[in-house]
Amino acid sequence: MRLACLLSVFVFSMLGQAPQDLPPVATSPPDSRDVKLPNGKSQREEIVKADYKKNLEDAAKLVQLSQDVREALENGDRYVVSVRTIKQLDEIDKLSRSIRGRLKRY
How far apart are CA 80 and CA 68, in angstroms? Predict the structure, then answer.
């Protein structure tokens, strides 16, 4: 046990050190990769707008589903949960993951 702890401390301390001999990485400005659509608008900007609109729609659906689940739990028996409620909870999980994924992109 003691050996495993010492080994993990050593590994994490080595991972935390920055390499000294690597040259700095040149970063290109974000606008150099930006593609223009035929109508002259930025493709990236259009994707961001579409993601924002989809996030708002999904968030509204999340609110509705969570209210439905709350009502089902309040009106139902404490030992029995309907299959519909379970499916709604799965849909809530799916929507929250998709929103999180779109937000982590940028």
Answer: 16
